[in-house]
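Sorry, explain these tokens?

***
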Amino acid sequence: MLADEHPVGFLVAETLDSSLFIAELSLHQEWQGKGIGRRLICYVAEQAREKGYTSLTLTTFRDVPWNAPWYARLGFEMLAEETLPAKLRQKREEEAAHGLAYESRCAMRLMLR
């Protein structure tokens, strides 16, 4: 996302089976709280829907206000660990192997209709 031709944020995603997995969403601090993150998610959701993906997925911190609670306000639902598809479970395990506490993180999904 650009403002006056200067980058203010970005979203990185990759295919994970029939889902588009959001690997990272980041905004410059000056531009946070202005709806840009929401616009990026909406744009990516529309592009994913057009390309035939069934959902957006991601992993994030459960209790950080601008993480899981923010995604929940956009319609993402927290997934129970026992229901995770194999590749999403693998993402969670990779995070834990890199030092992110398993219990502090969660997987979330937004179904694309």
